Target: DUF2207 domain-containing protein
Amino acid sequence: MRLRLLGVSLCALAILVVTGAQAGASGLRAAADPVVTNYDSEIRVDRDGALKVSETWKLSNVTGTFTRFLLTTDHLADDVDHVQKIEDLQVKAGGETKKAEQSVEGDITSIAVADVSGDAQLDFTYTVRGAVASTLNGTEVRFAPLTGLSYTVQDANIVYSTPEVSHVFCVAGAVDSNHPCTLAQLGETAGPTFRQQGLPPGNTVRMTVGFPAGEIAANSIVEYRKTFKRAFSTDTAQLVTALLVLLLGAGALLALYRLRGRDQVDPNRVVPASLFSLGQDTRIDFTPPADLRPGEVGTLIDERIDPVDVTATIIDLAVRGHLTITELEHANEYARPDWQLTRVANAPSEELQRYENVLVRAIFGDNDTVLVSELGQQVRANLGQVQDALYDGVVKRGWFTERPDRTRSLWTTMGLGLTVLGVVLIVLLALFSTWGLLGIAVTAVGVGLLVIGRHMPAKAPAAGRVLGQVAAIRGELLEMDVSELPSDQHVELCSRALPYAVVLGGSERWIDALVATDVDDDEDEGFPWYRGPRGWHLQHLPDSLRNLTTNLTGALFTR
Model:
């Protein structure tokens, strides 16, 4: 008997333990699964389109901060967004106001309520503006109060208080779902009614209520997405304005060039001129017209000082007897060539142009000799003075009304400034408007000003005759039969013509004419202005002068 009672007691105890364990597990599951047991909402739609929303949330097992979300941005075509604003928010629990944190991130407005514990009821009231959009036949309220909630909503009921309604529509599920709600109907005595049962976490309820024209005012808040297409809109106003700016800018650039940049001379005019003239005793004199120097010729033609203008001037100074060029012996066939420039003490008494004097001082300084390989930084530092003197010289001759380099610099600076302004406009207009094309048009005009700025130095009328003479000289250098020059003056006259040919073209044929004076196989010293190293022949002159020009350019202009 005692054993039977003991067995019964043990069984009862086991049952109690099992039952208690199951009850505890059920309690843990309930605590781990917070839900919204009921969501009840009343929405009054005012005539001005404002939604007055009153909500009751019944929560179970929710502890800590309760956060609910509303979909407040609707993306439409053509980069258009309809945005809804949540205003006048109040949250109460048990009749007492609760603090709520409202924030907007992307398409979602979130409302967080802290210090929620266990089973609770929260009452929300707020106003929605921007939820009413125009349609072909009237207006529609588009509203999604349940969006992406972290909890299951067991039962949701929404009732609208509205004037006359034309149609209703409701979908539930994922954001892009078209699954209909549990209930969406037009009541005979009440407003539109919507119901959704068993809404899983993360899902959305979206409702549409339509009204006939004139019932409810549209109050859509329209914003535009920042896209490349919209920033550079080709709508009529933007496109026409940009084209107008381009046309006006092109017209202004053309007028500017015609007034300030076009040469006041005929570039095709040829004036009879020759580097050679018949002197006394049937000798040929070298007489360039207007006492033109090679550096001046090059500057007059392209309105800028190029390396070839300076190297041709150095060769011309040597030919005229102011310095000599001596090619040094090569240590081996692979060694870099070098030359020694020597100032001539008893140079001709002719007056040098100012830029020629400056160049001689820049080359030699206080010395009488210098190696091309050692011209270095000092000469390069003084080249600016040479260029200044040469530019001042062409202005003094009346070929330009102002220095070409300063004219180019002025218009280039203006063009660069306008281009930078255009780029800034592109950025600002693209970021804050749809007028990016206007910035592109301004930038294009700036680039155009940069281009024509290079051609703005205009030659004065006084340059017309000189340019005609230069054209005649170029023809002579390119076509003249060099063999017609007197044999006893052949070297002298070919040497004098060579610097002009370096600038104007045809230097090879004049160098070949100098090479042709070599009639034997013996080594040659060269000419009074150019001396070769031991074992040098005139046949080496083309390579020697080509290397000299390359090394002079590198020494004088390479930084």
About this structure: The first helix runs from residue 2 to 32. The radius of gyration is 47 Å. The first strand starts at residue 35 and ends at 45. Residues 1-30 have pLDDT under 50 and may be disordered.
